[in-house]
């Protein structure tokens, strides 16, 4: 096997953490749009850097009030949505370790990941997910808390943390270093049970910065860039996209409705897309099939391809 290596474009400071960029962005350019968030009527509204930082602080304070300690594993079982990213950065702000789980996972898979990671809490998306956790909770003595996004979790944590001293949160965040464990991502394509891959804050920051300031500079060096994230955030590449967008000031939208991806893209109008090859292959195959229904369209499609 031949191996190739190149020098990194930059290094990560020893005291850096993934949560830093949330607060740095709010201080540097509070009015800058950080996210596009879909509303019930289908329209997208901007979430500014200052708004996002405020929400992260509120949820992180709720986690502190709930007794979350540095190094605690908190699983996240949810489809791709704004709240996933919000909770991710709130956990990082208190020194916790998010453990992503694909929302399509079976009860057996969920039970294994929760037990193997030693998760003391799990954030789930729906009441159906809550029922699944309840069905396996007897085998998980370390699991103490189940929070449900669609049962008012964000509001509940915000209220719960209202009396937390802001300096307590800042002290906790400042105690996180680049070498600390940031997340445990479980493999999906290996034989046997999924393997937990431990990634530090330095791992994710180095990957992201060397991509956005290296091979992908042309994409991420924009004054008005935006992208729509539709990959599961339990996927390591989706996490890189999330971190890269927040760090580079790219507006990030979320959607989990892959079957309606075309109208979602027309609605959000991203300036670029990042995905795994299989996604682009499916888009191409669908377009090719539709074009084949007409000889004229088929010739145009082949010429364009």
Strand content: 15-25%
Oligomer: single chain
From the alpha carbons, calculate the radius of gyration and give it in angstroms: 20 Å
- Taking pLDDT < 50 over at least 5 consecutive residues as the criterion, the unreliable ranges are none
- Topology, number of strands: 10
Strand order of the main beta sheet, please?
2-1-10-9
Largest sheet: 4 strands, mixed
Query: How helical, in percent, are the residues?
Result: 40-55%
Based on secondary structure, the structural category is alpha/beta
Number of helices: 13
Gross geometry: globular
* Nearest-integer average pLDDT: 93
Question: Which series of helices and strands comes N to C?
Answer: HEEHEHEHEHEHHEEHHEHEHHH
Distance separating the two termini:
34 Å
3D structure, described in words:
It is globular and about 65 Å long. The strands form three sheets. Strands 2-1-10-9 form a four-stranded mixed β-sheet, sandwiched between helices. By secondary structure, the protein is of the alpha/beta class. The protein has helices at 20-28, 49-65, 82-93, 107-117, 127-136, 153-160, 166-174, 201-215, 217-220, 236-248, 261-268, 277-291, 295-304, and strands at 33-38, 44-48, 73-77, 97-101, 121-124, 145-148, 181-186, 196-200, 226-229, 251-254. Helix 2 crosses helix 6 (153-160) and helix 8 packs across helix 10. 46% of the residues lie in helices and 16% in strands.
